[in-house]
Amino acid sequence: MIADKHSQVAFRVATSATKPEIKAAVELLFKVQVAEVKVANIKGKQKRFGRSMGRRDNWKKAYVCLMPGQELNFVAGE
Q1: Is residue 32 in some structural domain?
Q2: 7-53 pLDDT, tens per residue?
Q3: What residues contact 60, with CB distance under 8 A and at least 6 apart?
Q4: Is residue 73 part of a domain?
Q5: What local confidence, expressed as pLDDT, does residue 57 receive?
Q6: For every residue of 36-54, which 3-state class applies, written as one string?
Q7: CATH code: domain of residue 43
Q8: Which helix (H) or strand (E) holds 9?
Q9: What is the pLDDT confidence band of residue 76, given thresholds at 50, 70 and 90?
Q10: What residues contact residue 2 under an 8 Å CB cut-off, 6+ apart?
Q11: Pick from 48, 54, 57, 61: which is nearest to 17 by CA?
Q12: Residue 77: pLDDT band by 50, 70, 90 thresholds?
């Protein structure tokens, strides 16, 4: 949905990844031009494991905004 409206794509990235690293990786992997990268740190949910409470790991989500006219092709062979 965000790809159609805002020409953005969301990725789950390593928690240590920075915006310039994410931009360079997307440009290298998909051969597109990236306009900007927005990052959100997602906190892990608390879950029960039997009697004890546990917690899922925190993770990072990156919203990659592409230049106008660019789109990602996930199937490179076609």
Answers
A1: yes
A2: 889 999 999 999 999 999 999 999 999 999 999 999 999 999 899 99
A3: 12, 13, 14, 15, 17, 39, 40, 41, 42
A4: no
A5: 95
A6: EEEEEEECCCEEEECCEEE
A7: 3.30.70.330
A8: strand 8-13
A9: low
A10: 8, 9, 10, 63
A11: 61
A12: low
Residue 4 has pLDDT above 70, yes or no: yes
Q: At 16, phi and psi to the nearest 5?
A: -95, 0
Other beta carbons within 10 angstroms of residue 66's beta carbon come to 21
Percent of residues in the chain assigned helix, strand, coil, to nearest 5: 20, 40, 40
Query: Would the pLDDT of 78 be above 60?
Result: no
What residues make up the domain containing 42? Answer: 2-66
CA gap 35, 3 in Å, rounded: 14
- Number of structural domains (the chain) is 1
Closest of 57, 59, 29 to residue 42, by C-alpha:
59
